[in-house]
Amino acid sequence: MEWLPSRGKKREAGNVENEFASKRRLLEKPGQSADFVSLDAMDVDVEGDDLPGRQHICYGTLFSAKAQATSAPRHSMPPWTSFVSFPITERDGSFFLSQSFEGISAEFALLDVITTRHLNAVRNHGDLTFTAVVSSASLAKIPRQSSRKKTIIDITINILGPEHLAKTVGNILADRDSCLQHPNYLEPDIEYKNPHYFYPEGTMADLRRFVGPSTKITDSVQASQKINQILEALGDVPTAGFHVDDLDIAETASRFLSSTRLKDHQILGVRYILGREDMACSHAMDRDLWMLIDPQFASRLSAPGLGGILGDVMGLGKTLTMLSAIACAKQRILEGTVVDSPESPDILKAQATLVVLPSRQLLDVWDAEIKRHFRHESLSVVLFHKDNRCKDPRGLIACDVVLTTYHTLAADWKGSKVLQNVLWSRVVLDEAHWIRNQSTGLFKAAAGLKAMRRWCLTGTPIQNTLHDLRALLKFLRHGPLSESKYFEKYICQPIKSGPTLDQSFRNLQILLRTVCLRRTEALLSLPSSTTVTIQNTLSPEESAAYKRIETQCQEEFERQLCSKSKVNSSTILFQTIMKLRRLCNHGTFVTETVTQRSPSPSRKRGGSKGLATMQEPRDPSCNLCNPDEEDIAASLEGVDECPLCGRRVTDTAASQSTSTRRWLTVDGARNGCSITSEGNGTLSPTSSTARLAFPPTGYSSKLTAVTDNICESCALPGNKSIVFSSWRTTLDILGMLLTERRISWLRIDGGVTSTTRSAILSQFNEDESFPVLLLTIDSGAVGLTITSANRVHLVEPIYNPATEAQAIGRVLRIGQTRPVTIIKYVTEKTVEPNIIALQDRKRRLAKLSLDDQVTEGDSLDDLKFVLDTSRS
């Protein structure tokens, strides 16, 4: 990069603090002669308050500019800031980035020569202003202490001026082969009209909708889109060579099923499962795979791994399909059609299928599905969980199905190894993407199980990286492609370097068609659904409280920086987002908690990082689940799961921090819901008889709107509503508001036992006097069928679009006969619209890593995106 020299004598370098002290000392660049000349700087602060207003517009942005910084600017900005704007000053043909502090301007970086020539070409043609936009990541590269080392940072240049000069400036830059682009950032209330943009109607119009970081399609995005296309086409996997027909399956399944009849796609699913479990069929499919990928392996294949991936999307009945396949396989063994022989005569062999599930709730769902669909004692079931754990593996071998959780499996793997000492007839991993990280004990515990057949149930076999799929192949014992070197050679490298998109993904497509069956929601003939978004506005009191939380966050961030502590930026930003989201729901009913640090016993002993008390293994890639700060647990207060990765948490985790609310808690608790004789929902957990009391003067603009909509819905006979929220406190307040309006309600959250949950669901489905069911998003988003409801209320936007879709899927699924209305509540000019924008951006530009790891920093960028409300 060439730097434009200035005329003047050489001076000593000084840091920003010395420049402010001398009030006029010039920035300089040691090591070059005659670098800088004095010129009064513009007195403009970092926020750009003195930049031109509406009389000036932005013409666009010059990209690929660079600046050479000698010291860090002294600026105060919110920690969620993604971009910072600095005025550009000119001296004798050179341009500098400057800032104002306490009324004194100082320059801290010199602009590169190429960009300088562009600016010099236009600066004398009118009243123009140049503004440098720098990412916070680039600013962080500049040493805060004085240094002789110069740091090169990437910047963009916004050009602003009167609207009548736009075409003139555009023509000058076009003559220099320089094109104006959409800005990364533009101060609020400034119009953006780009003279280089093609306007179909011939008249320049405001283009602010295009302001923001570039969203061009990258290679990783194209890869994601191609993989989605491949996955969408896996529903027609050929089964011509399978030694079982649909009539045999339907007849065999009917011997076990009570009154349930399998649907056509479920019969095909059972056929696929039985085919992949047949030695001859699997060997033929694997041989065909390698004949197409690399024939040299076809003659060297060992015994194939029996099993595969059932990747049907939510709502198609994967659970019933797999259970039916287990029943059919049992019958075939009894009839002698299939010989079930162990790998070794010395190992304890079980006829049972081990099913591993993400949570106790899903364990109960599988147990309930067996009781609901299958004849009594046609499939024997044992629960291997907590106090129900069998100490002797011989107690497991005679049953048909053993249900356990990933957490229990991991604990057993580290301890008595009861599950590890059995050769299972079959191992089924539900939500198998839980083992996608091969470095975790969770993966090692699952991969260490001994089984003759292995199955992965997951609608997302590939989430963030192609190696998510390799982890599943490793568990499945699926030949050479489960090994890193072969997977890289035959799958990853062609994608990275293939001449065309189709050729690049050829091997991956062949592999998936061999090992995976995946059908989409196109098979479901569901009633129509309508989505309505209710825009909510904070009251003045709520808005003031919102601003106080933002201010506290910035003060905490600056305090951590001044103390030079190793602050985790993600933690501070996440805590702030959680507080702001809670305020959007709770309004002035709840004053945010004041956290007092209380080191956990594990910290005192120098124990492991993160939350010491958790129900499920944490996601190693989640910044929230692996924090160093002890008070991060306070951010999880009142939720049943981590909002970022979905890990289950408990109130015990939050109790690592001592939190006190500014109102008293009496007669109140927040767990399960039972029904009083008056027909109103009350909270009655087994652990407490108290009830949460709220200030009578409290007000929540959003929950008032939710209550109004529910009351309006209840006025129409037959309408039933389910209401989802991340926070139990939200359900507390809603329950109180509904009771005041004489609306009867029921409730399910993380503290409700499986027995109570089943009773509540039955009462909601059958009793017309209870038109409302309140649920926490984690407790109600999976494993439940609530087709008696026809309205879904989502009280707040959810980080993970998949979780939101799962919640809606409780109502919009097989068995629904009525049109469904989905009502989403969003508070304007808060973090909530940004969460929705982040969801949309992730859907539109889902990026896939082709390497064995995900790029760090993405989650931090997401947090900043959510908090930055300057775009709205």
UniProtKB/TrEMBL annotation:
Signal peptide location: none
Region annotated Disordered sits at 1-24, 593-620
InterPro entries in the cross-refs: Helicase_ATP-bd (IPR014001), Helicase_C-like (IPR001650), P-loop_NTPase (IPR027417), SNF2-like_sf (IPR038718), SNF2/RAD54-like_C (IPR049730), SNF2_N (IPR000330), SNF2_RAD54_helicase_TF (IPR050628)
According to the entry, every stretch annotated as the Helicase C-terminal domain falls at 702-871
Entry GO MF terms: ATP binding; ATP-dependent activity, acting on DNA; hydrolase activity
Q: Is ATP-binding set as a keyword in this record?
A: yes
Q: Which GO terms describe its cellular component?
A: nucleus
Q: Which domain of life is it from?
A: Eukaryota
- SMART domains annotated for this entry? DEXDc, HELICc
Q: Name one Pfam family in it.
A: Helicase_C
* Protein's name according to its UniProt entry: SNF2 family N-terminal domain-containing protein
Q: Which organism is it from?
A: Cladorrhinum samala
